[in-house]
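The instructor's notes for this session suggest beginning with a concrete chain rather than abstract definitions. Hand out the sequence below and ask the class to guess, before any prediction is shown, which regions might be ordered.
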Amino acid sequence: MNSELFFRPEAERELIEAVNWYEERIKGLGSSFLLSIEAAIDSISRNPKAYPKIYKNIRRILIRRFPFGIYYFVEKERIIVLAVFHAHRNPKEWEKRIS
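After discussion, reveal the predicted structure:
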């Protein structure tokens, strides 16, 4: 099952900021981060219900090698990404996006 995947603007902004931050630290690290994100997105698209619910209907996949998670929910045949969130940030920040 390959579902359509949509990023909310906040999630897209977080992803871009993280890629840029890693790339500024070490050349090529931003690209590695993006490859890890793409692998996680492919996995979500193939089987969106494979990852645990962590809050109401919100699921999370953790990113390999990087302290980030992708927070999303499934709505009919669509996957909505709420956040690309660093593990050390306050989870109340992404929870605000649910309403």
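Then share the key points. The beta strands are 4-7, 53-55, 58-62, 68-75, 78-86. The first helix runs from residue 9 to 25.
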